[in-house]
């Protein structure tokens, strides 16, 4: 199986060089892999780094994308892919040598249409005492364990593929289109949602996924994200984004004041947990409980403002229309 690796980048040439070296070191035939680096407006020596790698024999191609936003960069890169399987990772990620082989093995052995791999952290500084593993998803380092899992539409598996470590069959992307360009993070914002929306599109269309623990990458966690304010802002924004996306894709649920009843029950449970945590002195539990309430507040805000994301038509994002 030929695999195309897509990496979007912006002004991270040093980190990108490490990522490219790790991808080039895959235990996978070089002739069965190509790499596309989509440079989303870098002003550093990103292009030179990629050209040096190409000159050294790495099967890598460079494309410059002017329109700001990771989604734009990824969608342009998708036009250049040649693989049957499209693997996605980031410019601050270091895949382990068996990463590509693990993704392919998962597809071939399970017949899955998409794969979520395992993500482990590279801490720039030790994590603070108030941060529990339950919050690792905020930092894009969700470790879902060592067992292969089926990702189904019923929600029984809590794994969601994200851009740091996922792969999708090329023919599935051709039918669904790429990432939505009205979502995603821009400079100076914590706006999220493009990975989540793409996942919901996969589920809504009936495609099957699998979590593959042998497809491991290590994701850098910068010290700037290990602050309470970062987590508060991220959870507020994520609550808003999930509310927005669920109106477009989720199965209709019984609602109270515009919010699914089960979320009101969960909010009550979280409120009680926060009160209990306030008396235990466990700062990690106390902070996690407070963040769940902040997430729900963001969900409420978006539910009552009724912002809607319309599902993307097939191929529209990839073709740039």
Per-chain topology:
Blueprint: E1 3-9, H1 13-24, E2 33-39, H2 46-55, E3 60-64, H3 70-80, E4 85-90, E5 93-95, H4 99-110, E6 114-123, E7 149-151, E8 166-169, H5 170-176, H6 194-204, E9 209-221, H7 228-249, E10 255-256, E11 259-260, H8 261-280, H9 283-305, H10 316-319
Parallel strand pairs: 1-2, 1-4, 2-3, 6-9
Antiparallel strand pairs: 4-8, 5-9, 6-8, 7-9, 10-11
Label this structure with key terms.
321 residues; alpha/beta; Spore Coat Polysaccharide Biosynthesis Protein SpsA, Chain A; 2 domains; nine-stranded mixed beta sheet; two-stranded antiparallel ribbon; 10 helices; 11 strands; globular; disordered C terminus
Written overview of the protein:
The chain has 321 residues and is an alpha/beta fold. It folds into two domains: 3-225, Alpha-Beta Complex (Spore Coat Polysaccharide Biosynthesis Protein SpsA, Chain A), CATH 3.90.550; 228-305. The protein is 41% helix and 19% strand. The chain contains ten helices and eleven strands. It has helices at 13-24, 46-55, 70-80, 99-110, 170-176, 194-204, 228-249, 261-280, 283-305, 316-319; strands at residues 3-9, 33-39, 60-64, 85-90, 93-95, 114-123, 149-151, 166-169, 209-221, 255-256, 259-260. The strands form two sheets. Strands 1, 2, 3, 4, 5, 6, 7, 8 and 9 form a nine-stranded mixed sheet that branches. Strands 10-11 form a two-stranded antiparallel sheet. Strand 10 (255-256) and strand 11 form a beta hairpin. Helix 1 (13-24) packs parallel to helix 2 (46-55), helix 7 (228-249) packs across helix 9 (283-305) and helix 8 (261-280) packs antiparallel against helix 9. The longest helix is centred in the C-terminal third of the chain and has 23 residues, at 283-305.
